[in-house]
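Subject: Sanity check before I submit

Could someone independently write out the structure tokens for this chain? I want to compare against mine line by line before I put it in a report. The sequence has 496 residues.
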Amino acid sequence: MRFLLFLSLAGLTWAQDPLVVEGTVVNALSGVPLRRVSVHLVGVSPVAPMVTDATGRFRFVGVKPGRYRVQTARQGFFPDAGLAPAVEMTAGRGVTVPPVKLWPGGSISGTVNDEAGEPVAGVQVTLFRRAYLNGRRELVQVLNSVTDDRGQYRLFGLQQDRYFVRADAPRVPGETIQYPSTFYPSMTEPEKATLVLLAAGQEQSGFNIALRPVSGFRIAGRVLNGLTNTPLDDLSVSIYSRGGHAISTPVQHGSGRFAMNGVSPGLYDLVSTTMYDRRKIQARRLLDVRRDVDDLVVTLLPGVQLSGRMRVDGEGEVKWSGLGVAIESAEDVIGGGGVGRVDAEGKFEIGPLAAGRYTPKLHGLPTGAYLKAVKIAEQEATLDLSGAAGQTVETTWVVSMQGGKVTGKTTPGAVVALVPTTDQPLRQSRYKAVEADSEGRYEMTGVAPGSYQVYAFTKAEAGAWMDDTFLVSLADGGVAVKVEERETKAVDVKAQ
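---
Independent answer below. Compare away.
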């Protein structure tokens, strides 16, 4: 874990030795100095890293004048969430940094038992937290472990947060009764699970998980080659839960039929892939399991090859080489997208992609630029590739250098988010978020023309501003702003 501290004249004590940066790293809970902390001084010139001594001290000698930041890292410790003062060093004068605080990690432990109250060995125990991904609040895996011969687990080195704990017992081949994925204390759905609240450095024990066998649901059907409409065999069908738990089953030889038993209710990604006529064919779809399904047809087709070229609209030039292109599933299918790099001629290739709907994003654009449109056959279009299996789709990505600018003031250190209205084209690429400086100033460039709401947050989760449901729940609806090309709008916003 890394902690960034910007050094400045204000509020710091100058050291006696010139060109020296020194300080101490301490345990934020106990105040005890921390030894063997890796310290990096990053700024205008390279400085060799060092490690704190037995008293927690570090001392860099011969540092050139300029702006620097201190990065500290030690296994099992986490940075202070507070903002550091931003400042500059001047020639011939050193500086003593205020104590750098690192918070100790905590732990969560317990036992996994079966319906008879006996401990179960070899159970995978996974820790999750909620986080926003592309505007959707998902379970994100943090850490995992396996129960020992006494059915016990311990997850350690954890940052202060709220966690879900899930147990996945090994499946017994051929048995219809299975133990479903179970969240603490004994729930199969995360919405009904009990959150574990962990403070910094806290050791939480006794979080025992009770497994209960269920017959689950049966998922059965056929796998077809979409090119020949004939059954496929010598492959498997897999489903993946949103927590990463996977179930795979082979397809019967000659019939193309498959069956899975003991599937817990929930949302899964179904995936199947094989080779036909020297090319890859695949199926990837969402599967909402709420009952037995005996007639599922999984059709494998060649993927879609996406070919793109960049073009500047109007004045300006862009150095294309190194720009990043991201194609993300608009249908919430995990792994349904792809990424690519633009070459010096402004061209890229991504694929093969599963047929479906996608949202485009472009990363690394120069200041003032934005993605204006994506065109297919010179017509503005959405990336709906649902009917393009086996095809190469030629696209033109239009970039404008005439983006607007939004500036203003808010609470120092607050995150300012620019949220496009729902009618904006290419909406996913229009969101912006920056952190206000120590004086509360912020600036966003490359803003596409259109209507937006500006929000400022001091405690919101990263990415929460891309969730319309979250925004509707706020007491403060933000500040409305409309931006035209090359226009600068000043918007002061109150943090919430």
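---
OP: Matches mine. For the report I'm noting this point. The chain has five domains: 3-103, 106-210, 218-300, 304-400, 406-490.
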